[in-house]
User: Fold this.
Amino acid sequence: MVSPMYIMLGIGAVGLLLVLIFSISSGVGNKTLPPSFAKTGVDQCDRTPVPKPVRRNEVVKKSSYILSSIPPVGACPTGYTNFNDVTGNYLCCASTNIDPYSHTCSAKGVDGVCSMTPGIEDTRNVSGDIKHYPLCQEIGAQQQAEISGRLCPRRYANYVALPGGLQHKCCAGPLSPSGTDCMSNQSCMSLAAGQNVFSAPTSCEKELLLEKIQCPPGTNLVPSMKGTTSKTKELSLPICVGVTGNCFAPAVLAKLRSAGFLLDIDIEKNVLNCDVYNKVYVQRIMNESQVETTQAADLS
Assistant:
């Protein structure tokens, strides 16, 4: 007869075996569970999450939203302000009045808005012939040509604004890639505070002044002659030198007067004026009795 103790042990062993078999079959034994995938119709091997799309009205409300293919802020022509239209195009407005809600520019005219990339449709209907915004680079080039012609001499024809905005350079050749200096040393510098064209002989303003001088026949231009008085010995004076005498071009006399010189003579009638000199000694349509021959005290 089998002992009750062995019967109980046998039942326990059978139960333990059943538990072990169930654990192995369900993955508990090796601490793994079968993954559970939702049936979405997407290949379950591709586990890359798909970002949630941003609504259009949420994009245009972000002031920092700029297309990656557009140049950075600061590339607008002088006097223009950068902004983004409702589709994210980087544009420049010829005004600071930009509607932050409609993303529109208040400036009128064909050049009121320009784009940094070609082919951006102009939705303002300013003209039936205009289909796209003008390029900001072309407007910038026109501005460069205008300011170069006004502030730069012919031999240093390319204007470049220097950091700080107080001075500029004019370059004989192209500008540096950054647009903030000349590629070569062939250039002139504008006047600094406290200088005038006679105290800065290599300035752009002095070069522009020399371009305007036309000496009378029989005289030659000396671009930089030192004065002989205590007030002029440190100056560099452009003067027309001849056998009969010397004279200054009217433009030079005007700048000397504005600098505080020649206050004791009538520069319109004095023979020191090359126009008067020409009439007396070259054309001989006037004589010395008809003009002022008094020497300027600060130049004699």
Summary: The radius of gyration is 42 Å.
